[in-house]
Automatic annotation (TrEMBL):
Its cofactor is Mg(2+). This is UDP-N-acetylmuramoyl-L-alanyl-D-glutamate--2,6-diaminopimelate ligase. ATP binds at G111, T112, N113, G114, K115, T116, S117. It holds the Pfam family Mur_ligase. InterPro entries: Mur-like_cat_sf (IPR036565), Mur_ligase_C (IPR004101), Mur_ligase_C_dom_sf (IPR036615), Mur_ligase_cen (IPR013221), Mur_ligase_N (IPR000713), MurE/MurF_N (IPR035911), UDP-N-AcMur-Glu-dNH2Pim_ligase (IPR005761). Its EC number is 6.3.2.13. Belongs to the MurCDEF family. MurE subfamily. It is found in: Cytoplasm. Residues 23-96 form the Mur ligase N-terminal catalytic domain. Meso-2,6-diaminopimelate binds at R383, D407, N408, P409, R410, G460, E464.
Amino acid sequence: MQLKNLFYKIPLLATSGSMDTDVTELTMDSRRAGLGSLFIAVRGTIADGHSFIEKAIQNGATAVLCEEFPTELNPSVAYVRVQDSARTMGLAAANFYEQPSRKLKLIGVTGTNGKTSVATLLFRLFRQLGYRCGLLSTVQNQIDEEVIPATHTTPDAISINQLLTKMLTHGCTHVFMEVSSHAVVQERIAGLTFAGAIFTNITHDHLDFHGTFDNYIRAKKGFFDQLPATAFALTNVDDKRGLVMIQNTAARKETYSLKTLATFKGKLVADGLFGLHMLVDEREVWFKLIGKFNAYNLLSVYGTAVLLGEDSTEVLTLLSGITPPPGRFEQVVSDDKIVGIVDYAHTPDALQNVLETINNLRQANDRGNLPQVITVVGCGGNRDAAKRPIMAEIACRFSNRVILTSDNPRNEDPMAILEQMQAGVPPIDFKKTVTIEDRHEAIRQAVAMAHPHDIILVAGKGHETYQEIKGVKYDFDDRAVLRSTFIERANH
Ligand SMILES: CC(=O)N[C@H]1[C@@H](OP(=O)(O)OP(=O)(O)OC[C@H]2O[C@@H](n3ccc(=O)[nH]c3=O)[C@H](O)[C@@H]2O)O[C@H](CO)[C@@H](O)[C@@H]1O[C@H](C)C(=O)N[C@@H](C)C(=O)N[C@H](CCC(=O)O)C(=O)O
Ligand SMILES: Nc1ncnc2c1ncn2[C@@H]1O[C@H](COP(=O)(O)OP(=O)(O)OP(=O)(O)O)[C@@H](O)[C@H]1O
Ligand SMILES: N[C@H](CCC[C@H](N)C(=O)O)C(=O)O
Ligand SMILES: [Mg+2]
């Protein structure tokens, strides 16, 4: 595609060289530039893409998109200067791939918790309704049957447009994607045309990246502010910030609630290990998902399907048979009936929700004793440090025993993270808390502490199959470790 077509309707500040230059691919990484590439220089959190312009040209880039021209311009290269190269990258990627998001129904899900759950439920529901669908999620990307590993919750703008194009080629009509707050701030969704957007909730997370809670709210709201008038914006009005999200959107405003009047109204009748018993728009339904938070997820999925024109009865019938995504309240039970629960709760709110759910589900034995709740939990390195003591305190408040351990320490010292967690343990709970850096050993100890019918919550990693330490991803799967430890126990 010629540069001038690539920048169709995109405001440019200056150009140098020929706008007829042919561009064969887009890249924001000089190491990936090849012959005919347009290299997009983005200012990142660690490096400044502008310092790699020369490298990209050496690797074959024939055009450069940047916010500042290099002091020396190469006469055989075309340069384009813009106000914001990350945003322009999104707009240009949409032009380059001929606006794939406009050719299908793209639904974005944002919120601190529940994005993967809602996007995956929608994907599964719409496949059962007979559509070919795409999914962009933390767990994996999917083009109908085909699974493509995910590196991010929301990929970069070039990858999104490439994936959408592939989805179109495979005949997909609906795509469900998670929109992380990082993605909004870094303009990974610029240039996409959404048919609908969903807000789940907002609580403490990622303050390392956003600085303040207000900035974090603004980031999420930024998604709704960008929506076109043709889209719908479906928000959870039971969340304190639910209405703030849609305050300035041009999209059609729709709401869901378990507590108050809303476009889609639900009521929780009962929840237990069987799942959820709800009234949805006055109709009685049983779902297989566990925990009150999933009542919200299901209601938003139902609302979205109805807003997309699906028959409400068929939607409820299909939804009642749907199972949760991997690593979300996933149960691994030992032969002697110790209940292991692996859950991706990695924020204070999610941890509290999942532990409250577990506490509500506990049933006393014949002698009137309640089973113990043993929680194994850690907090990620190079991520929000403020949540560490809070999560430790929550684990203590809702558990009989707590084992603090590692969860992707990344480039931080694992013991330093654990010390920050320990700072949140109230003195009264010192006795029931231990710290075991090695996650495998931590799970082993939890199993050793457990009696039949006790519940072991292993929180934070869910579907993850690795433990990331100093840039290396070691194989690690909470579910597999629980299973093998249960077998070891049975053999002793
Ligand atoms: C903090 C963060 O979001 N970082 C993302 C960001 O990287 P960055 O700003 O650090 O990039 P950088 O290393 O400073 O480099 C700046 C630019 O120079 C370029 N470069 C760099 C080196 C070189 O030799 N040549 C070159 O061209 C880079 O390609 C980049 O364009 O832009 C990159 C490209 O899009 C992302 O891969 C990267 O995600 C990192 C790996 C990451 O871990 N991100 C996490 C925090 C994240 O985004 N998480 C959210 C989910 C959160 C949630 O769900 O709760 C997500 O959407 O996944
Ligand atoms: N609607 C919800 N409200 C609160 N907590 C939830 C909700 N849905 C799921 N959770 C909890 O949060 C955890 C993560 O859920 P999920 O993976 O769906 O969230 P996410 O928003 O995709 O997370 P991430 O930011 O890592 O992509 C679940 O394992 C569960 O414990
Ligand atoms: N999408 C989140 C996932 C956190 C999962 C947890 N296991 C961790 O590594 O902190 C992030 O990248 O911050
Ligand atoms: Mg997710």
